[in-house]
Amino acid sequence: MATEHKISATGRxxxxxxxxxxxxxxxxxxxxxxxxxAAPQSIxxxxxxxxxxxxxxxxxxxxxxxxxxxxVQKVLLRDMQRHxxxxxxxxxxxxxxxxxQAIRVAVPLHFLNEEKSPAGKSADVVVTHELNExxxxxxxxxxxxxxxxxxxxxxxxxxxxxxxxxxxxxxxxPELKLGKEHDVxxxxxxHGREEVEEPTEAPxxxxxxxxxxxxxxxxxx
Length: 221
Fold this sequence. Notes:
By secondary structure, this protein is of the alpha+beta class. Helix content is 16%, strand content 36%.
């Protein structure tokens, strides 16, 4: 069972760009809550607390306990709008979660023991992570915060594919149902490029000015 993560919000009635600007001036984040059988609802969250929560991986991939005016609802973060260059969250979208319906969520991949593997110990081997997250489908109660991939046996030339991920019970990867061509590589271990020194070219013969050549030709006559 995933760890519970609680965030707080309050309902709001004012909507529109002007209302959102006023909220941001008061260090509040305008947000929307939608999904399920209830109507969409405009809400607001404290920026400082929400910003701190957003620095954690779980904020983006876990089911959150949204305390809305004293009533807790299970939600997922579905969209976040940030300021182009300031550390400001401009808007958030949350989706209500039905405990009896499967959800699709992008879950982070955690790679373990890479440095202990034969490939990780070789100075001339490059290990690349082709994916850092994978979309899974499962009931809310089965949603993992992350998926661990043990690379302790990784050797040069090895390729770890999507189908080799060990998934928790009740969790599947929808992409794999689309055919073998969707079983993409997630980790590749290969030799790094060897730098080949280019042969030093012999210095080009010094060019003799045309005027001097002409002068020598005249002296010979």
